[in-house]
Amino acid sequence: MAYYIDILAQLGLSPESFVETILEPIQNPDGQLLILTERRQNSVCPICHSGNVVIKDYYYRFLKVGVPRINQITIQIKRVRYKCKKCGKTFVYPLFGLKNKKQHTNEFNKSLLEQMRFMKSFKQIALENKVSISYVLKLFDNSFSYFPRLTMPKILCIDEFYFSRKKAFKYCCVLTNYETGDVIDIIQSRQKPFLKIYFGAINPIELSRVQYFVSDMYDTYSSIRDEYFPKSSYVIDKFHYVKQITEALNRYRVFVMNNITETETKEYCFLKKCWKLFLCRTDDIEDKVKGKKFTCKYMNYEEYYVKMVLDCLKIDSIFFEAYMILQDILTKQKFENYNAGKTFIEFIINRLKNVDNPLFQSVGETYEKWKDPIINCITINKTGYSISNGIAEGTNNLIKTVLKVSYGYKSFKRFRFRALLVLRNKKAKTL
Pick from 141, 118, 113, 143: which is nearest to 129 by CA? Predict the structure, then answer.
């Protein structure tokens, strides 16, 4: 009897609704078959409220349920159909935990919804619980019709990720709270009209709470910050402005390598094989190579990696100058005040503009355009944080995983709800 009651409780059904039986579920190839008989009720007619109600007949109703903690179970319920002698209406009384014309119990639906909080695709959830994908999608859409955003934080990080091949919605925009790591919201597009509509609908008092606005070097983000967060300090993530010069230096490395006429030389081999060492700090090279020496198979030649980097830089004066500028950017720590950071960035800009190559001159012009946000990044701020967009980049990786496990989404609304559900659940688990 205890086993019988436990099964009903797990399925979300009340044992009081059925005739007591000691029969255990019958094992069959599809799982287990549980046979139940509805208990007769002495009540009134729900139509005319007459107490003159009799049993008309019986009929069978089948439920297919699959809860992870128990096996797949098919429930056969012998239901009672009543008839009112006064009004002549035929009806059945509702059963606790069971909706009319539904094939699954409330408890089963709750189990499905709980599984949707984890990094699983809708198809995987459907297969594990032996239901159709359409049922899982319909349950999700009906259960999550609204998902509010969080309030604007003190430090707002904004970034984008690839979502769709459609041009207008190719990149979605994600807002993140730097201090807590919470995802504030996901916006359908990073294009300016969508962002203006989104931020324009938020109370200006709430927008004024943002003291630091962090983004990459995307012009639309800059205009949005100027229009809706004018009093905030604009911070460009260090990764993005360093990326400008590393990409230029890497392209020039290829140019230098291709100008070497003899391809079977140690310099050509090193420039081609060990290109990553030209884009990092000189002091970090030994840590990356782990004490090994560079070996050139063409010349049976061995040399320390740092020595090879310096030898290759001597090939071209522009290559050497650009490399030294990158080293200055990578090795400089936070500056104590705005003026010190401004002096350093202006020094870097002048050096880049004086390099006799359009690649690095273009980088200098980009730095000049984004000078103030870069200075804010390299200057110690009032919060004490070393502010960057790294928290948003990490969030983007989780969002991309939500997309990847489901092989993409056609509906942005459904994707937004699912991504926020998974991310906020993951955040809650870590607390």
Answer: 113
